């Protein structure tokens, strides 16, 4: 049986744990001292579009309701316990802000059916996560927002454009370019960083463009498949980030992705919006993205854009470029750029979200 809301609030005020919740405590060493911030770690489930999704809430114990951040996923980090999100779990509760991470639909504890490249479904999942937190008396329902990196940085603004329940948006390393433009930029840099020739790069670009043209209905599937067949024997094929067989455009998730212009979703956001990029991001066309944002800045007074010196796509500064661009390390990223952490924390404080 779940405790009644009033009982929940009383238990929190008295410092008691809710059923199923675990408080993080200091090590039991004889020289240890009690931590100022005590974090309750609680497994949660919520339903979106008939699908049950699972996640974990990291909640700073507080005598009054706190703000909360729902994390939307990067393409390569679909699980809520991915290392990419560790910095949020560490820093936000210390600021008096709860963090909710969940397994993307079709991954981990969130079933086997994925969204098939439909960003609207993923955005609606984030909205459902926000709505599930609104009923928690420990969380201020007026101060729940979203944070997303890369693909998650597309999902978060889309969710905010579709729901009045989202109070703020943080978008990190999300290109303001369509997915096809971004992937050509990324794959080109992957090949260049790994020493491939210009001829290899040209072949890669031609292959990607042929597939994209088929998805738009301006070229044939057979012509695109022939280029894929020629490329799949190349050592650089893994950097193409495409399968060996092209799906029919009628059912392709990639077609839905390239038809989505993130600038449309961004300009529909009316709540405070922080957009962050790494100056050394080889995956996203940052300069192009910033120029597109400048063009709409006059009509988006609640938008702030910041480019972090020395940071890569995952807001890392300590990782060698060859490692950061190697697909086998996808999903192992850990944000560690001090400027990114500082800008994020100060922005949250200015929005009156920190401090419980």
Q: What can you see in these coordinates?
A:
By secondary structure, the chain is of the alpha/beta class. The chain has two domains: 5-176 and 271-350, Alpha/Beta hydrolase fold, catalytic domain (Rossmann fold); 179-256, no CATH class. It has helices spanning 5-13, 86-94, 119-134, 151-162, 179-193, 198-216, 221-231, 253-258, 262-267, 286-296, 321-324, 338-350, and strands at residues 21-23, 39-48, 51-60, 66-72, 97-102, 139-149, 169-172, 273-278, 303-308. Strands 1-2-3-5-4-6-7-8-9 form a nine-stranded mixed β-sheet, with helices on both faces. Helix 3 (119-134) packs across helix 4, helix 5 runs antiparallel to helix 6 and helix 6 (198-216) runs antiparallel to helix 7. It starts with a helix and ends in a 6-residue tail after the last helix. The relative contact order is 0.12. Mean pLDDT is 89; it is low at 1-26.
Keyphrases for this structure?
18% strand, alpha/beta, 12 helices, globular, 37% helix, 356 residues
* Helix vs. strand class: alpha/beta
Largest sheet: 9 strands, mixed
What is the CATH superfamily of the largest domain? Alpha/Beta hydrolase fold, catalytic domain
Poorly predicted tracts of residues: 1-26
Record field, number of beta strands: 9
């Amino acid at each position: 049986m779940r405790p009644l809301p009033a009982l929940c609030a009383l238990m929190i005020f008295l410092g008691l744990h809710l059923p199923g919740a675990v408080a993080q405590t200091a090590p039991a060493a004889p020289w240890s001292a009690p931590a100022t911030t005590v974090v309750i770690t609680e497994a949660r489930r919520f339903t979106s579009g008939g699908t049950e999704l699972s996640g974990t809430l990291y909640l700073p114990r507080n005598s009054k309701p706190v703000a909360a951040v729902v994390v939307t996923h990067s393409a390569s980090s679909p699980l809520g316990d991915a290392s990419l999100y560790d910095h949020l779990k560490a820093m936000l509760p210390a600021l008096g802000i709860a963090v909710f991470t969940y397994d993307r639909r079709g991954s981990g504890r969130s079933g086997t059916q994925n969204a098939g490249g439909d960003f609207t479904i993923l955005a609606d999942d984030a909205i459902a996560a926000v709505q599930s937190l609104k009923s928690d008396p420990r969380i201020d329902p007026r101060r729940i927002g979203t944070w997303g990196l890369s693909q998650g940085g597309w999902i978060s603004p889309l969710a905010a454009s579709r729901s009045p329940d989202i109070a703020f948006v943080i978008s990190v390393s999300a290109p303001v370019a369509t997915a096809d433009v971004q992937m050509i930029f990324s794959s080109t840099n992957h090949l260049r960083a790994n020493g491939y020739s210009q001829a290899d790069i040209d072949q890669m670009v031609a292959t990607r463009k042929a597939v994209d043209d088929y998805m738009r209905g301006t070229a044939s599937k057979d012509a695109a498949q022939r280029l894929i067949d020629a490329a799949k024997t190349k050592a650089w094929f893994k950097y193409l980030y495409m399968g060996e067989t092209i799906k029919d455009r009628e059912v392709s998730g990639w077609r839905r992705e390239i038809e989505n212009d993130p600038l449309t979703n961004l300009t529909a956001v009316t709540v405070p919006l922080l957009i962050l990029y790494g100056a050394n991001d080889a995956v996203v066309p940052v300069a192009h993205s910033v120029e597109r944002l400048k063009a709409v800045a006059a009509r988006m007074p609640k938008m702030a854009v910041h480019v972090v010196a020395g940071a890569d796509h995952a807001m890392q500064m300590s990782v060698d470029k060859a490692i950061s661009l190697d697909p086998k390390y996808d999903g192992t990223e850990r944000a560690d750029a001090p400027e990114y952490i500082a800008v994020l924390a100060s922005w949250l404080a200015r929005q009156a979200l920190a401090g419980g």
